[in-house]
Amino acid sequence: MSLRLFHRLDTAKTQYYHFKAVIVAGMGLFTDAYHLFSIAPTMRLLGHIYYDKSPGHRIPHKVESAMLAVALLGTAIGQLIFGRLGDLVGRRRLYGLALILMMAGSIGCGFSIGTSKGYVLASLGFFRFLLGVAIRGDYPLSATIMFEYANKRMRGAFMAAVFSMQGFGILASSVVTTAVCKIFSRVPEEADIAWRLILMLGVIPAVMTFYWRMKMPETASGENILQANQDMELVLDMSHCQIAEGHFLQPSKSSYLLFSKQFILRHGRNLLACSTTWFLLDIVFYGYPLLQSKIYLKSQHGKDTNEDTAFDAAFKVARLQVIVACSAMIPGCIVAFFLIDRVGRLIIQAVGFVFMAIVYFSIGVPYDGYWEHHPKALLILFALTSFFANCGPNTATFVLPAELFPARFRTTCHGIAGAAGKAGEIIGVVGLLMPSLGTGVTLIIWGGICVMGMAATSMFAKETKGTSLDENE
Description:
- It is built from 19 helices and no strands.
- By secondary structure, it is mainly α.
């Protein structure tokens, strides 16, 4: 790879292609968030349809835990497989495959087999596993591609912009769910069609960006030097001859291998730091939607009643998600966009963890007997946890693994860190569904986990703000 090319990418002016890359790369995260946050109201619909005789029309804890665990297992496997293959065969080649699997999984969820609960839930679990493999396999590819396209001055901001598509996916999921619930509330007997439609509509953003994803050039850190140089002509205002001039930086595969002693000495600390902080964050962040709907719907203005229809129950959850997405998640991503290249990744991550801990302790300590009388204050505090997560560790854990490692290990290490996050997500989500822990105790534990996340941030060997492409090599 030409060092001249690295320098030109690092110093290139912001141009149209950067913004197109943000949209194309961000659609994977958009789709991920759509399906992640559509499952909570969908579970409410399924409970009313297939468990209408159970207390509160709720799906049994074991069944709900199994459904969520299967999907999360798929996400962990996807990040590991696609992360490793991204370094072995190239980012662009796998990008289309991930999108095809996303579309197949989205449509498959809607066409879950049969009408009996056993067939439906088993089929839905399988297709959500497939969807999880595709969506989270897209994470290391999207992060790495954006890192390798962006200029040094705006690299963090562009990657944060890609990640912000997650917030818009949450908003889209909630808006679609509320609209479908309102439309189908006139024909309550068609509830089985409604939840299928909500999940199938998640295929639209993937279809819309498929063509552009197939046209994206291979990144500047690809193995094929000649092809990468030719592809970069599409991105830079620089001819192939100019790009090819100067010194070349050959991929040094022979110097040390993945997980070799030298790899551990050079990159082990950063990989451990990325994995640990992502693991800790996901315990609290992805249990958050379920806990949010559970505790706020018990308060005065969101309480379920026996007279609620399936659409009423799902609508309440989705409406709450709209409020939080607009008031906290998306604003948090916007703040991260402006701060990440000014303040640095590690500072916003550590500060975000600290404020999340403060809010969780503030809710959890006086939880029993207090918050049901102060529902609006409870909603504001929960929104604050989402805001501080998105303008802090939720964005930083996505950005840091793409910036800390050389090209030949970049998607692999991002996938490993992300898979560690999925392990945390499984603990957070499945553990939350176990009825033995009280909600207040859970929140206090979450506050302690955030304190651990703040401490784990000090494990990183360096700040990546302003890092150039050739430094990583």
